[in-house]
Every structure is written in structure tokens, then in C-alpha cells.
Design a protein that fits this description.
Helix content is about 45%, strand content about 25%. It is an alpha+beta fold. The chain has a two-stranded antiparallel sheet with strand order 1-2. Helix 1 crosses helix 2. The mean pLDDT is about 90.
């Protein structure tokens, strides 16, 4: 069964001195449902719902960067630790879809 691809657009806007300025933007994709993951992550005991959202985005971004740059020495020691942490989180909230990957 082919996994349904989702596409997200990330836009970071800085609010400073009453003005808004776009500081970065990019597309991000994959088959995980980030909104569903953030909703499930609320059960992990974050102080605020926004922390669950930040956590899920950070996890997805870091996973994607490590996967696409696996030969980068910067991630040599961290990649296996991150993978173990990711699996621990996944055992508690799943992955936001039915793929189990």
C-alpha cells in the first residue's frame, strides 16, 4: 500500500516593535499527519499545548534532516540516540498515521 504524501508550508514570521517580518519559509513533506501527532503529543505531559506542537515539529524536522544527511559526521553519534528517543515517543503516541514507520 502506497503512503499518502502530505505537504506542509512552514512560514516563520518575527514580530518585533509592532511589525511583522517573514524570516524564513520552506516546504516540508512526508506521509505523517503532523496535526494528529501534535494532538496525541498533548498526552505526554507538556505544560502547554503549544509545547506539544513545538515538540512534534522539532521531532519531524530533526528526523528528516538526519535521514537526508546520514553521511554527515555532525550526526554520527547523535543519530542512534535520536532514533531510540523517537521510537520511545512513537511507542507512546504513534506516528500520526497508520504506517508504523
Amino acid at each position: 500500500m502506497e503512503k499518502e504524501k502530505k505537504s506542509y508550508y512552514v512560514n516563520v514570521i518575527e514580530a518585533k516593535d509592532g511589525k511583522m517580518a517573514e524570516v524564513l519559509d520552506f516546504n516540508f513533506g512526508g506521509h505523517h499527519d503532523i496535526a494528529a501527532m501534535a494532538d496525541k503529543a498533548k498526552s505526554l505531559g507538556f505544560a502547554k499545548d503549544k509545547h506539544a506542537k513545538e515538540f512534534v515539529l522539532a521531532m519531524r524536522f530533526m528526523h528528516h534532516v538526519i535521514k537526508k544527511n546520514s553521511d554527515n559526521p555532525l550526526f554520527a553519534q547523535f543519530a542512534s540516540q535520536f532514533e531510540a528517543f523517537k521510537q520511545e515517543v512513537r511507542s507512546k503516541i504513534g506516528c500520526g498515521c497508520e504506517c508504523n514507520s
